[in-house]
Design brief:
Elements: E1 2-10, E2 13-18, E3 23-27, E4 34-35, E5 46-50, E6 56-60, E7 67-69, E8 72-73, E9 78-79, E10 85-88, E11 91-99, E12 115-119, H1 120-123, H2 139-158, H3 163-177, E13 183-188, E14 197-203, H4 221-230, E15 232-236, H5 249-253, E16 258-266, E17 269-278, H6 284-326, H7 332-341, E18 352-363, H8 366-372, H9 375-395, E19 399-404, E20 407-412, H10 421-441, E21 451-466, E22 471-476, H11 478-486, E23 494-498, H12 499-504, E24 512-518, E25 525-532
Parallel strand pairs: 3-4, 21-23
Antiparallel strand pairs: 1-2, 1-11, 3-5, 5-6, 6-9, 7-8, 7-10, 10-11, 12-15, 13-14, 13-17, 15-16, 16-17, 18-20, 18-21, 19-20, 21-22, 23-25, 24-25
Helix pairs in contact: 2-6, 3-6, 9-10
Length: about 525
């Protein structure tokens, strides 16, 4: 049996990499077993393969610049010898093959720097079903005791409602069972995008808690990411002397000695990582490493179920908050669509430029009404009127921007694109005026009411705008400013539209040209069209 190492020449420096698997890929992509971020190296450049007879070969994977073995370009798999020189583009590797005595790998013997790496499925029952007799305790008794422990842990975790409660239970169990652990961390993929976030961490000694960096800088992210991506459990008794971590600067910089990490997986979904480490090398793991890693993995499986429930509860709470906020602006159908497509990063709709039609509907004579009636009566009038008019807006898939005193501001074409946004806006205007006529006939108010409605179309920036304390979903831009100015020239009980809106209408014949107007802040004449809705 031979052991393969690669000596990488980088300028004046050298780096040694040990090949641990039978198929070893080399390339420019980070997911390669040997990552070479060089322009001369292809994404998947070459691979090393261990044959059934124990020999090592190298094969080019169709790279752009080719693979050279001892200055000869290879086109088929070639056997490697100790001292061979391999060039991949502009990167040089020296092959180091050394014989390994089989006695070194006797069962149960683990070197202090060895890393235990296991598929989590292999570890699920290993801790529960003991494989030897511990003192006077039989295998059966020990198995029953461990099953009882896991049942108790599962009961406590199932009762935990918050992530803090979940971690508190985990912390108690880990520090009780694993004396070798100094620090513990719970990392969760909250967004579901593969981005691990540190949600909780603790140390065995309460006095050390204040010295634990809250940003998680003490954690080996490379170990955690490998555990998460590949669904494997990792344990190293002495990372500083472990050849597997020779290229991991974070291990050295963060002074990580012993480390253990397992995935939180529930059925086929990995939701996070449970991570633990110690400042000093844990020689205890040389004898008990496999057993403790099995327990850590079994515990993580229970934790995963609790975390899944917490994530689901958080998602439902978040969606409810979003729904309640969006229902102020959109029809229920649009709200459901927005939530379904997940277009709400951090619960916000980011501002973006889009083409819309903006509508302003203003109550005629509101100032006089305010002077003749009490504030309570005026508020009741506006509430009832807005309730009626908003039904027309939502019926056409419109978005309520805001109420400005006695004015309704709504737009069409966002957040979901609506190619017929101009037609929708005009339909709503006609519906508002018709509905108000019906309400007047039913003595909706002490005296008949009238609206002025103005519509303009064009580009606008639409999205959530505001501070961390308050955010409003609104439309901004010159298109909105012109619509607001046009509302002032609209005759009572009518609707006016700009030329931009008029040109977009599928049936513009119901509008008559009103004339060219100049508005404050707009350095051009604007053609305006009007129509009576009676």
């Amino acid at each position: 049996m031979t052991k393969l190492k690669l000596r990488l020449q980088e300028g004046n420096s050298q780096k040694t990499v040990t090949v641990h698997q039978d198929v070893f890929t080399i390339g420019r992509l980070p997911q390669c077993d040997l990552y070479l971020p060089s322009g001369g190296v292809s994404r998947y450049h070459a691979r090393l393969v261990k044959t059934p007879s124990g020999l090592w070969t190298i094969e080019d994977l169709g790279s752009k610049n080719g693979t050279q073995l001892n200055e000869r370009l290879i086109s088929s798999p070639q056997e490697l010898q100790d001292g061979d020189v391999v060039w991949l583009g502009d990167m040089c590797l020296v092959i180091m093959l050394t014989p390994v005595e089989s006695s070194t790998f006797k069962q149960g013997v683990v070197s202090p720097g060895k890393t235990i790496l296991r598929n989590v499925k292999q570890l699920q029952e290993q801790w529960i079903f003991a494989d030897n007799i511990d003192g006077d305790i039989s295998i059966k008794d020990k198995t029953i005791a461990r099953l009882k422990d896991l049942v108790d842990i599962a009961k406590n975790l199932s009762a935990a409602a918050s992530i803090e409660e979940i971690f508190s239970q985990v912390q108690q169990v880990v520090f009780r069972y694993l004396n070798s652990i100094d620090r513990l961390a719970l990392l969760i993929d909250v967004s579901g995008c593969g981005n691990l976030e540190l949600l909780n961490a603790a140390t065995r000694k309460i006095s050390d808690q204040e010295h634990l960096p809250s940003d998680g800088s003490w954690i080996s992210r490379s170990i955690c990411q490998k555990v998460f991506d590949e669904k494997v459990a990792i344990q190293t008794a002495d990372a500083q002397n472990d050849e597997r971590f020779a290229g991991e600067n974070s291990i050295l910089v963060k002074d990580i000695r012993s480390a253990m990490a397992v995935p939180l997986w529930d059925e086929n979904k990995v939701v996070g990582v449970l991570y633990a480490d110690a400042h000093f090398s844990s020689h205890h793991w040389v004898e008990k490493g496999e057993e403790e890693l099995s327990f850590f993995s079994a515990l993580a499986n229970l934790v995963a179920s609790s975390v899944q429930r917490w994530l689901l509860a958080e998602k439902l709470r978040s969606e409810e908050v979003i729904r309640q906020r969006l229902e102020r602006y959109h029809s229920p159908a649009v709200v459901q669509q927005l939530i379904a497509v997940g277009a709400l990063p951090n619960g916000r709709l980011p501002p973006q430029e889009t083409e819309i039609s903006i509508l302003f509907a203003d109550l005629v004579g509101f100032t006089a009404i305010s002077e003749r009636f009490t504030p309570t009566q005026v508020a009741e009038l506006l509430n009832n009127l807005f309730e009626e008019m908003l039904q027309e807006v939502f019926a056409c898939g419109g978005t309520l921007d805001k109420y400005i005193g006695d004015c309704i501001m709504a737009f069409f074409g966002a957040p979901e694109p609506q190619p017929d946004h101009a037609d929708r806006a005009v339909t709503v205007a006609k519906g508002m005026l018709t509905r108000l006529e019906t309400l007047n006939a039913k003595n909706f108010w002490i005296e008949p009411l009238q609206l002025r409605i103005a519509i303009n179309s064009g580009k606008a920036v639409v999205g959530d705008v505001g501070s961390s304390q308050r955010v409003d979903y609104t439309a901004l831009g010159a298109t909105i400013n012109l619509a607001a100015r046009m509302e002032a020239i609209c005759p009572p009980g009518e609707c006016v539209v700009s030329e931009a809106t008029y040109q977009m209408l599928s049936q513009p014949s119901s509008f008559l040209e009103m004339g060219d107007y100049r508005f404050k802040g707009i350095n051009r004449l604007v053609k305006v069209y009007q129509t009576k809705m009676h």
